[in-house]
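Hi all, long-time lurker, first post. I run a small reading group and we've been trying to get comfortable going from sequence to structure in the token notation. Rather than ask abstract questions, I figured I'd post a concrete chain and ask someone more experienced to write out its structure so we can walk through it together at our next meeting. Sequence below, copied exactly:
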Amino acid sequence: MITADAVAGSTTAPVDTNQFSAMSSQEFLQILFTELSSQDPFEPSDSSALLQQLQSIRSIESDTQMTDKLGTLVGQNELASASNLIGKIISGVSEDNLRVVGYVSSVSKTLDGTVLNLREGDRVRMSMLDEIITADEFFGEDAEGDEE
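-- Answer (accepted) --
Happy to help. Here is the structure in token form:
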């Protein structure tokens, strides 16, 4: 469906929500009072529409900020979980797309997420980890020197 604005050829500039989120309540009220004072008293504009639009923009900005914060929290949680795997033997798919089993010597935080660095030189993303192996499973049941 084509709107009247599209037929008339008018375009709407994108709104920078960061500027609206930086706006103080005092500035917002000043804009609202300026609009109210400059309107024709015999044909008042719909100030509630302006309030709804600004509220929608602030809501979108708030959702964006919450998404960013949740992403940061998930990344920190993944890094903390990965750090608990240092000294453990894991199995997964390496960054080279090879099945690897190895000893986790360190953990790195990258743009692609948390990566387990194996002693053998391989790197496994946390998302590609599929098994954490105990020493008994890897070396056999007598791994702790319990000879019979």
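A couple of things your group might point at:
The longest strand covers residues 99-110.
The chain has two domains: 17-35+48-83, 87-139.
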